[in-house]
Amino acid sequence: MTDTDKVYLGLLQDILDNGVEKDTRAGRVKSVFGRQLRFNLKKGFPLLTTKKVFTKGVIYELLWFLQRPCNSHGSMNIEYLVRNGVHIWDDDAYRWFKSEIVKNFTSIDGNRIEYMVCVNDDEQGVKPYYEYWMWNQLRKNDSEWLRNLSKEDFLDLVLQRVEIWGPFMSKYRFGDLGPVYGKQWRKFGGSGIDQINNIITTLKTSPNDRRMLCLAFNPDDLCEMALPPCHVMMQFYTRELAITERMEIFKERSKQGLIPQKYFEYVNNNKASSVSDADACYDMADIPRYGLSCMWTQRSVDVPLGLCWNISSYALLTHMIAKLTNMAPDELVGSLGDCHIYMNQIDGVNEHLSRKGYDVLPKLIIEGDQKVIEDFKYENFKIFGYMCDPVIKIPLSVG
Question: What topology does CATH give the domain 1-69+180-240+288-388?
């Protein structure tokens, strides 16, 4: 069993042994408070081997978080995920849609909405047929059709990019979630601060800075979100690598054919007679001088389902930023608040605790020559040697 599995399963056992039972908004749980987990990224990519992790979903969700919202109100939309076969946010988007419909549509007179549509037609041209159909349905039975829209029909409208206009919202498109993670990471506050890009710039220019933080929890925006952020902050930290660590990176890159022959021969012939000479040689070969660590802070942790996902996601982000800044992924730290197991998850947890997993972590390779965070694509990420036990079916509590 890997250290990653041991740390994760240790927290599950801790909650079973020491957790306090209580009722929450989404169901009854056992929970503990205030735990810290550490993962050595030099040993491999921290995917659980005691159950299969949905790596496709982890990658696509992170790429989605890293998109800058292009609409005026900064809402993130599940369309990108749905089109790529990732449905982890569907239930939250659908739940939020229904709550917004009940809150905003039930008291609006149908004739008023019809009048607005006619005005929009005169001013902006003819709307597509499905928008006429939607408005006609909306006017029936005091919005009953929208309030009772099935999840399947909802997802169809997400893929059609249908928008709802009205006096109750500046804009809503089926699948909107409000200003969740990506909005906060890339366009925070009224001035639209790009926190991710600021961190990358600081790592390149002042790697020992102690203010390399990114916040997702913005109190001004919470009421506009389908779900307040669970992982609320990340912080980055660097340390200078020892010469022996740089040597190991050099050897690994040599095996991959990434080091020009002249540098390989220089080191092998012991032309570097001192540590400073060796460092200079490694600098010429573009070997990282710094190790990059990330600590994420999470207020609420669904340990059986969400935590393994969060570990993988923040490890992936650390690798991406390390590549952009020519650093080596070093350590990942999770600083966790309310760590809980829902009572309907305990059977799955017990099955998970009975497993032994494998002894070796997989390796992540990021292909391509990315210059900015937007350059990363799904096909750039290759995970090698991932051996794992089967998926465990564990229920998700939404809300």
Answer: Thymidylate Synthase; Chain A (3.30.572)
